[in-house]
Amino acid sequence: MTDSVPGAAPRALPSLPEVLARRSAEQPDALAYAFLRNGEEIADTLTYRQLDVRAREVAARLAALGPAGRSVLLLHPSGPGFVVDLLGCMLAGVAAAPVQVPSRARGLERLRRIADDAGTDVVLTTTEVKRDLEERFGTLPELAALTLHDPESLAAAAERRAPGAAAAWEPRPIGARELALLQYTSGSTGTPKGVRVTHANFGSNVDETDRLWPCRGDARVVNWLPLFHDMGMLFGVVLPLWAGIPSYLMTPDAFIRRPARWLEAISRFRGTHAAAPSFAYELCARAVSEGGLPPGLDLSSWRVAANGAEPVRWQTISAFTGALAPAGFRPEAMCPGYGLAENTLKATGSPEDRPPTVLWLSAEELRAGRAVEVPVAAAPTTAAHPDTVPDPAEAVPSIGCGGPVGDSLVRIVDPLTRVTRPDGQVGEIWVSGPCVAAGYHGRPEESEQTFRARRADRTERRSWLRTGDLGFRHRGELFVTGRIKDVVIRQGRNFYPQDIELSAENADPGLHPNCAAAFSAEDGTRERLVLVVEADGRTLRGGGELLRERIHRAVHDSQRLEPDEIVLVRRGSLPRTSSGKVQRRETRRRYLDGEFGAAGAAAPRERVEAGR
């Protein structure tokens, strides 16, 4: 059997610099980006002409410093400097590697490791960030080895290196297969690796996204996700430029401090497209539940609420949809999706013309790797009737993440035999198509294994990206169940850590979303199930005995599973990625190294041998 390679050649798509040049010529004074102070009023703007002029200035200066084909780091908060430098790098043929601005020495060490991996010591940043890093970390060797350039120092360095060259610079042709970006993975699944994203990858992914969730003439994006993260960059910067629509950008901190700001910005600026991980929708639902709807909130313009970057939870969708319905939010606007940096971003997505698909599956069959629907009378569609929810030990909800678009394909494959699995059977998610990146930077063997896999039961020219994620297909739609390396195995049955974590989080109303990490750990004789859960200081000072009992009971009742150890830590102790996902493997490493017991790390440390 074969999966045919599409007969027609992929459409020739323009590069982002070419799109910018066209926008600058055709819509010079149209608003491209608006930057919100405190997530509320507009503090700064960029038109297409302004962005084009400033990006060309950056490109000319980079060209004066050296030839195309090299890389630089982008170290920016969410502001106009990031957008200008990103496009400037692309114009100059320099691969940008966006990185989070470090706030602690640990973050500075990660910055240096990424610089070493990318083979560069040049960092483009803002005057404020440059000054702050030099004041706080100026004596550390990790910073001393890097050359920080704000706009002024970059211009001066270019003039010293090649006097007059920047003024004489002209744009160069950009090849589709040229490297556009080094997107370093967030680190939730291991050591950060630089994904080599080409201009063709960028164009294909944003084109597929625009075809899935069309950005019509009145469309507007409202984004709080960090721009250095793939989801924030693609949705907040690249998609609006591609579609020629304005993007309203707020900082992640403004959202985290008060989640309702995001909703208010969508209402104020009539946002139609906005994306976030599941925990953000949970925070919004909780804020409305506790404080009520903001006065005058109107979400009727919101057409696409993309939900991805972490497991999509039925409970969260139900709570958010129910809480925001009085403000005009429509159930069909919630659009779960699946993506990863290795595929540039989006791989699948639910269309905007129907509510998300929810399957109620036999929990026992799912642990055996089979997706078997169970009859659920009057299956609940909102969180308003929790008494109608089936026993989680018997039936669990699984949310559909839609299907691929265009020339992209998704298949489910046995990770050991590499044989394709039929619909309804759980296996590894494999992706193929024009969005699959060129590989990992400087890692040829790992790139070959991950990006150029072949199925054992097919004769085909097509190669596949092995995602490391588990899922199944049902009527052409993808359902994601977890990651291969995170699965907890008990007596031959698979338990997914996100289900265990959700049970723990639901054990007490005082626990926040995304506050737990579940993993297995060897004690020398057997594998033990460990749960690390964040709680507030008052609970920890009280000993946490009642909370630990509630967590143990909730996990046992919903999963038919006994945690061997529950560790309570202070809020903010769990390591997270730039998108807010808990890093399970890093949590496990810190647990095994005893870091949660170290003075000041997560003290006071509260542990319990569950069931004893």
Shape: globular
Number of helices: 19
- The oligomerization state is single chain
Structural class: alpha/beta
What is the radius of gyration computed over CA atoms, rounded to a whole number of angstroms?
Answer: 24 Å
Taking pLDDT < 50 over at least 5 consecutive residues as the criterion, the unreliable ranges are: 1-9, 378-387, 598-612
Q: Let me know the largest β-sheet.
A: 4 strands, mixed
Task: Describe the overall structure.
This protein is of the alpha/beta class. It is 33% helix and 22% strand. It has 19 helices and 26 strands. It has a four-stranded mixed sheet, with helices on both faces. The N and C termini lie far apart (55 Å). Mean pLDDT is 87; it is low at 1-9, 378-387 and 598-612.
